[in-house]
Each structure stands twice: as C-alpha cells, then as structure tokens.
Amino acid sequence: DLVEQSKRSAAFAAVDKHVLPSVRVLGIGSGSTVVYAVDRLLELKNNNQLNPKLVCVPTSFQSKQLIADAGLQAADLDDLPILDDAQGGFTSIDVTIDGADEVDSELNAIKGGGGAHLREKLVANASNKLVLIADYRKDSQVLGEKWSKGIPVEVSPLAWRTITRQLEHMPCMQKGSRLFEDEHPVANLRQAVRKAGPVVTDNGNFILDVCVGNIYDPPAVERLFKMIPGVIEVGIFSNMASEAWFGNSDGSIVCRI
Ligand code: DER
C-alpha cells in the first residue's frame, strides 16, 4: 500500500546515501520504517557492498532482532571506542538511521510512538549523524500538526500519577512566548494491547503520552518536561537530526536537511 511503499522508498534512499563501505558503526532505530532499512542493508550485504567490519548498534529488543535476523553483527553502545575527538570526543557511531512519528521544518522530531525513544536518543546522541526516515504522514511544518497521539514521555512507574498531574499543570507560556498550543495538556498512561495493564518499556518503565497540541518551541518543551523528577526521557529530539527522508504518496522521495 502507499504508506508502506513510501516508507520503503525513504528507507532505501537513506541507506544508499549513507551506508557506504566506509561506514564501520551504524545505529539502527526502532519501529516499522527501519525494517525496510534493514532489508536494504541485507541486499547490500549480499552484494558485498557493506564494510566487512560493519557493526550495528540496536535501540530496542526489536532492532536487535532485526540486526540478528539479517545476519549483521550487533554491538553495545558502551563497548565501542570513540571515533575522534574532533566530534566532541564522545561519539562512537558513524551514522544512525531511525524512524520518526513527526518531523518539523527545523528537523525537530517527535519519537517514541513505538516506545523505544530512550535507547534511540542514547544512540542518536552518540552518533556523528542522525538520519530520519518516514512516510509522508510524518512530514510537518510544526510538531503536533499531524501527530495527535501526544509526546511520548518515559517515566518511572514509582511516580507516574504524580508526574501525570505535574505534566497536566505545565505552563504553556514561558517568558511571554507560547511553547505549545493547549492551555490544559492531557497526559495518558499508555495501555498495552496484547497484555493487561500499561505498556512496560524495554527498560522497565511506563510511558505517558502528553497531548499539548502544536509545539511551537520543541527544545523548550523537551527541557521543561525533562526537568520533572521521574521523567526518564522525552520523545522530542530537538536539533539532533541532520537529515530527514520522506517517501511521498506519488512515489517520489524528498530529503530535508
Ligand atoms: O518509537 C520510535 O521512536 C519509532 O522510531 C517511531 O518514532 C517511528 O516508528 P514507525 O517507523 O513505525 O512509524
């Protein structure tokens, strides 16, 4: 169908552009779009177009399974040496390819629709380059325009009710400027579908999906939410991605840098 085809087009184009034989360490995101990216990696591997020493860094149980099923070598983030001091002295991954729930005109992204954003942000942070891949439904000017399920926020199960209340009392204005649209945010505990009770992340935490309407200042909202005790990671990736590849419904591909 059109959406899956557009995911696949974006994924193949991004892998072909970035996973050159010179790439030694590749971060693999989570979700349904990166499945196509790994499909393309397998094709390149079978055509001997990958670095024979390539290692892939997973961002979830799901992505570790994708890596293993493709016969690629997995590596743990902290077992990797730093690449070079020029990049700030802490990055160990050449490039990470990951999906997104929505991307704005400045390449800020909402992530965490698949509940993997903590490890995804750890891997993205350790990468010299973060390349997002998505179908046309994720291509927005302002975060919140199209993604209506809220900002995924990973929280400690010990205080999720208290954190819910605190999130729902977050001021939408700061120093005279509006950070997000809704005066009264709503934070919903993400319930599991194939398990009774709430979703429990790979890290043993809960997820609150926080609906705030449009997000006019993603970095400020990310900082504001992150300061709440018990918030473990916020599904806003501000100023992290260097490119976003979108598959369009007409089969064309667009890359936003
Ligand atoms: O959970 C995540 O962060 C995923 O990367 C999500 O943002 C994208 O998942 P999708 O490719 O299935 O839309």
TrEMBL record:
NCBIfam families: PRK00702.1, rpiA. Belongs to the ribose 5-phosphate isomerase family. One of its GO terms (biological process) is D-ribose metabolic process. InterPro entries: NagB/RpiA_transferase-like, Ribose5P_isomerase_type_A. This is Ribose-5-phosphate isomerase. It comes from Coemansia brasiliensis. One of its GO terms (molecular function) is ribose-5-phosphate isomerase activity. It is an enzyme of class 5 (isomerase). Its EC number is 5.3.1.6. Pathway: Carbohydrate degradation; pentose phosphate pathway; D-ribose 5-phosphate from D-ribulose 5-phosphate (non-oxidative stage): step 1/1. It comes from the Eukaryota. Keywords: Isomerase. GO terms for cellular component: cytoplasm. It catalyses: aldehydo-D-ribose 5-phosphate = D-ribulose 5-phosphate.
